[in-house]
Amino acid sequence: MSSNKIFISAGELSGDVHGGNLIKEIKKLEPNISISAIGGDNMARYGAKLLYHIRDTAFMGFVEVIKHLSVIKNIWRHTLNFIDKEKPDLIILIDYPGFNLRLARAAHKRGIPVIYYISPQVWAWHQSRIKNLKRHTKEVLCIFPFEESWYRERGVNATFVGHPLLDIKSSKHKIPKPPPKIKTKNASHLIGLFPGSRKQEVNRHLKILIRSAEILREKHKNLEAVVAIAPDINFDKYKRAFPHIWLHWIRGRNDEIMLQSDLLILSSGTVTVEAAINQVPMVVIYRLSPISYLLGKIFIRIPFIAMANLIAGIRGVPELIQKKASPQNIATEAERVLANPEIRHKIKNFLKDVSSKLGRPGATKKASKIIISHIHSIND
What we know:
It is built from 17 helices and 13 strands.
């Protein structure tokens, strides 16, 4: 019987989803392995004992991090105390670079090997962090095709495993029962609104997205919209603020919303990769606090914010950031896509090409096998 211990750190919703699936695959290979984590409901469901829940850790942007500095310091101190007491054999980090890169350094000092699964996007900004990954990780498991060569050229032991969202999509296809249809009243168009998975993103984006839908309804009287509700956010106050009968609120059914929508308006993030895999036309937006945006302009070194555009290296889907992400601009871009079948067809073909670049299903299984091989090398 294995007595090995793993500690996993995933600070936000997407990390919890992928972390949960990773734990499921690890447990298939080593049922007796002990897993503790900073994570969420998905990781707990598959057997992780949570030190902290992601609802306590999901901070985004420079200003938001500074506001919650005392909370983050307390989480950091408690995490290190836990690691010193439990002495895990291996630490797995999932994205969340601000916290996890520090944890990689701390683990390395303690002689604990580190695997980074879903690597931080250091190729996008703060490339100096590459030194940390090189020195303090045993291996970086990449989910985007361009990452492996980028890391290897800089001396990091990296392996492209594929994108775990393809695994989720593949497993859903095995379920024969069709998903329930979103109930609308003879809508001429249905658009999906994805304001984000963090509370500050929702506060910043939701009003803008709904206002853009209102503008679209001036031209399309029977247009309806559905808001995708993130699991850890209470949407009651938002429903009261926007009591439109043409507006629907659905929790935990991203795939169904996407596949039944004519167009998506999305906050930039993992959800845009889901949309690319589902090949649904989209408009990608993002707003930060003014200070976070100014600091981001200094450090960020990428030409696009939409992951589909980054993977392809060209602007294939519309994207609007900061002041450009106004209701009128969003509605204009959305109308251009809705009104023109040729543009929709072109975007779908673009997304099909992007999806093919993500690899094949099996990323989570491949990652779990690599992780277990590291555990076995520790035992040898």
